[in-house]
Amino acid sequence: MSTDFLNCNQFRFFPAPGHSIQCDEILHFLKESTISTLAGRKPLLEGRFQGRDCLLRWFYHGGVLRNIFRGRYVGSASRAVEELKLLVVLKEMGLPVVTPVFALTEGRTIGYRQAIATLRLDNAQDLVLLESISDHHLTSLVRLLERFFDAGLYHPDLNIKNILFEPDAGEFFLLDFDRASLLNGPLAPVERKRIYERLFRSFDKSGRLDVWDDFSFEAVPDYVGEAMSQYRKIRKIRAFFWKLNQK
């Protein structure tokens, strides 16, 4: 994928293949977009662009850097542009991901801000807000993630809030591939286990870990069940020290 871009005032836009954009329409979209009802980990903006419902996600630092730099970045490598490229490749591979529209950078006095825009999936629901998550849903989710891992996707921060469910099709979709990458071949079991542990932690933090209580891990690869066992052990240790500190 080429990295063609369009300069509009302080903005630089990087359209996805097949998308032709003009400064006026894209600046109008940025001006008129509003906070989305979707429960992504970062605030999402929503609006109409070229006759379609689109979502815009600004990038923010995590951890300690978030309190210092928030959404300001330095350097030439844009994470938004890299995610746009990755989404294009995953889409071409036939994997269920959101459709990218454009990435952008906004120059500031020091550094820049960046964002990515994608098409909104009609009727899609956040997994974290899904009222009923059955064993069938969970099995389908694991099988989907295995497809991504088989394709070589490494996601260092896979989270329940980055998973959508489309009830009409009965399918899951992934979004937010910030810092994710494609490796040269399928992921090793140890890498997959690490990602699942992170995912289970996000289920726990969102108050949804209980949906796995009666799940039969025999229906999925061994390392998925091992990841859950490992996370529950870590959870008990954390709970023990938390109670100890309360005395």
Q: Helicity range of the residues?
A: 25-40%
CATH homologous superfamily identity of the largest domain = Transferase(Phosphotransferase) domain 1
Overall average pLDDT: 90
The CATH class name of the largest domain reads Mainly Alpha
Specify the number of helices: 6
CATH topology of the largest domain: Transferase(Phosphotransferase), domain 1
Low-confidence stretches: none
Determine Rg (CA atoms, Å).
Answer: 19 Å
Element string (H = helix, E = strand): EEHEEEHHEEEHEEEEHH
| Ends apart, CA distance between termini | 58 Å
Short description:
With 247 residues, the chain is an alpha+beta fold. The chain contains six helices and twelve strands.
List the main descriptive attributes of the protein structure presented here.
alpha+beta, 2 domains, single chain, Phosphorylase Kinase, domain 1, 21% strand, 6 helices, 247 residues, Transferase(Phosphotransferase), domain 1, three-stranded antiparallel β-sheet
Please describe what this structure looks like.
There is one protein chain. This protein is α+β, with helices and mostly antiparallel strands. The chain folds into two domains: 6-119, Phosphorylase Kinase, domain 1 (2-Layer Sandwich); 125-246, Transferase(Phosphotransferase) domain 1 (Transferase(Phosphotransferase), domain 1), CATH 1.10.510.10. Helix content is 36%, strand content 21%. The chain is built from six helices and twelve strands. It has helices spanning 23-32, 63-69, 79-92, 135-150, 189-205, 222-246; strands spanning 6-8, 11-15, 34-35, 44-49, 52-58, 100-107, 112-119, 125-126, 153-154, 163-166, 171-174, 181-182. The strands form three sheets. Strands 1-2-6-7-5-4-3 form a seven-stranded antiparallel beta sheet, with helices on both faces. Strands 8-10-11 form a three-stranded antiparallel beta sheet, with helices on one face. Strands 9-12 form a two-stranded antiparallel sheet. A hairpin with an 8-residue loop joins strand 3 (34-35) and strand 4. Helix 5 packs across helix 6.
